[in-house]
Amino acid sequence: MNKVFKAPWAISLIAITIVVSAILLGIVLIGILTASRSDIAWLVAMVIIPLVILLISVFFSIRGYAIADNTLYVQRIGWNTKIDLRNLTSADVDPQAMRNSLRKWGNGGLFSYSGKFYNRKLGNYQAYATDPSKAVVLKLCDRTIVVTPEHPERFANQVLATMDKG
Q1: Residue 28 phi, psi (nearest 5)
Q2: Mind listing the pLDDT tens digit for each residue in 117-137?
Q3: Tens digits of per-residue pLDDT, 20-74?
C-alpha cells in the first residue's frame, strides 16, 4: 500500500527562498540592463548562472514523500529520489535532529534543505527536508537520512509498519 506525505515548508524556508530568489532575479535584471551584447562573460555571470541556480533548485525541491515496497520516494518536480529501506534499523521523530548542522554539500534553503550535512548528534547524514521541526531520522545500516514529512509520527509508524510487512 502506497502512503504519501506532503512536505510542508517552514517559515524559514519560505523566507530564504523568497530572499535568495529575489537576489538571483535582481542579478539577472542588472545583467540584462547593463550588459553590452558583445560581453559574453558578463551575460554568463550575470544572467545564465543565476538562472541556472534558480532552475536547478526548483527541480530539486521536495514536494513530498511516498512509501511503497520497502522504498522511500522523495518526490521532486518531475522525478523521485529512491531510498531503499530494507536496511532500516530505526525511524525516530526528532524535531531537534538538524539543529547545529554543518552543510557539507547541498542546498541550505533555496526551495529545500537537502544534501549532505553533519552535526554531533547524528554525525554525517543526508537531508531531504523542508521543515526541520518535523524531522524524522531514518537510520540505515550504512547511513542516516533525515526527512520532514507532515505528520512525522504517522510517517515513522508507516515506515516501521511497511518494514514489518517486508
Answers
A1: -60, -45
A2: 999 999 999 999 999 999 999
A3: 999 999 999 999 998 877 889 999 999 999 999 999 999 999 999 999 989 999 9
Task: Return the sign of the alpha-carbon dihedral for residues 104, 109, 110, 116.
Answer: positive
First to last CA, the chain: 12
Distance of alpha carbon 33 from alpha carbon 153, whole angstroms: 50
- Strand-pairing partners, residue 93, are 136
